[in-house]
Design goal:
By secondary structure, the protein is mainly alpha-helical. The protein has helices at about 20-50, 60-75, 75-80, 85-90, 95-110, 120-135, and strands at about 5-10, 15, 55, 115. It has one domain. A two-stranded antiparallel sheet has the order 1-2. A two-stranded antiparallel ribbon has the order 3-4.
């Protein structure tokens, strides 16, 4: 099997990665793609029974999953730091409000996805967290003792 070239930023030179490292990198990307698809499935399921949430089609659900992931990585930490006093005073319950705001931002960014209001976004974020924890539990690797 050929070895692939990879640029190392620390040493500023080229080095080879083994095939097993390449397989691990591919597995990590597959896991990310699976999480996006499972989140899209959860969005479609929740939109089907929660009034006030609409998703036009499955493609928009995948886009919503990607946008939610990006917002959770880029925007949520900033909101958590800015609202830290309120989060501490409410013993962490204000994080539910931040999650609802993230859902509302995603609703404004994605054209085929709409949430009718704050309380619907709060319910949607709670259900999405529940669905994701159940669906992501299937992706966990079993560790040997």
């Amino acid at each position: 099997m050929p070895k692939f070239r990879h640029f190392c930023h620390k040493k500023n030179d080229w080095h080879t990665i083994s095939d097993s490292q390449r397989i691990i990198l591919n597995f990590k990307w597959m896991k990310i793609i699976l999480k996006i698809l499972l989140t899209a499935l959860a969005v479609v399921l929740i939109a089907s029974f929660l009034p006030g949430v609409t998703v036009v089609n499955y493609t928009n659900a995948i886009i919503v999953a990607i946008v939610l992931g990006l917002l959770r990585v880029l925007v949520k930490p900033i909101l958590v730091i800015l609202t830290l006093p309120a989060t501490i005073l409410t013993l962490g319950l204000f994080l539910f409000v931040i999650n609802a705001v993230i859902i509302l931002i995603a609703s404004n960014l994605v054209t085929g996805f709409s949430v009718s209001g704050f309380w619907v976004a709060l319910g949607f974020s709670l259900l999405l967290s529940l669905f994701q924890s159940v669906l992501y539990s299937f992706l966990k690797e079993k560790k040997e003792k």
